[in-house]
TrEMBL record:
SMART domains in the record: Dak2
PROSITE patterns (alphabetical): DHAL
Gene3D superfamilies from the UniProt entry: 1.25.40.340
Keywords: Kinase, Transferase
Organism domain of life: Bacteria
Residues of the DhaL domain: 11-210
PANTHER family found in the cross-reference section: TRIOKINASE/FMN CYCLASE, TRIOKINASE_FMN CYCLASE
Protein name: Dihydroxyacetone kinase subunit DhaL
Membrane-spanning parts: none
InterPro entries associated with the record: DhaK_L_YcgS, DhaL_dom, DhaL_dom_sf, Dihydroxyacetone_Kinase
Originating species: Cutibacterium equinum
MF terms (GO), sorted A to Z: kinase activity
Amino acid sequence: MGMLMPEITAATVSEWLKDYSAVISEHANELTDLDRQIGDADHGSNMARGMNAVAALDPQSFSSASELLKKAGMTLVSTVGGASGPLYGTFFLRLSTVIKTDGEPTAQLLADALDSGLAGIVARGKAEVGDKTLVDALSPAVDAAKQVAADGGSVADALAKASTAADEGRDSTIEMVARRGRASYLGERSKGHQDPGATSMALLVESAARCLSGGQS
Ligand code: ADP
Ligand code: MG
């Protein structure tokens, strides 16, 4: 629609990280309850601790979006004890390598950034789609964003479709048997429960759609 997209700067990224931190605080009890069903009841507190530390980073002390994303990733790795810390940390570190320069983002750039984040998570955690992890929310989101980019769509459309796909992926974990992480110890008994990490990942993509779409609809 010829509407100007904001550049992705440290300030834009900071807005996103602060939004996600607030969302995690709101949903911390829900995430912990989900983790109580198939894990050790700490996913909400793990994510809240990590994202509180990330939200406290002052965007003014970073010269670019990339520098802030990198610091956010390192902060998550160092402050979150659970499996989710290194995985979410890797996600943001990978984003920092794709969103290298500040500027007006394209749908392709954001699809590439999410794809790189997914690749980092898979390299680290070895989960595949269907293993009942946060990969089940992120992977369909990446596919949806790539499709919009290939069709020449907008950033807002790419992130909106990615968010819808992440929600569907999160829901699909309910019927899955866990094959990675703590929930895998339960085997068949993990069935019938929504994966906590897929739930926090769907919230992350939704937050990105809200904060990085530049006011387009
Ligand atoms: P922990 O399992 O160490 O207590 P959390 O409770 O914070 O850590 O996070 C659990 C979530 O981490 C799971 O719901 C799952 O989505 C995700 N997870 C665990 N292991 C893996 C893995 N190998 N690959 C991808 N995601 C994983
Ligand atoms: Mg846990």
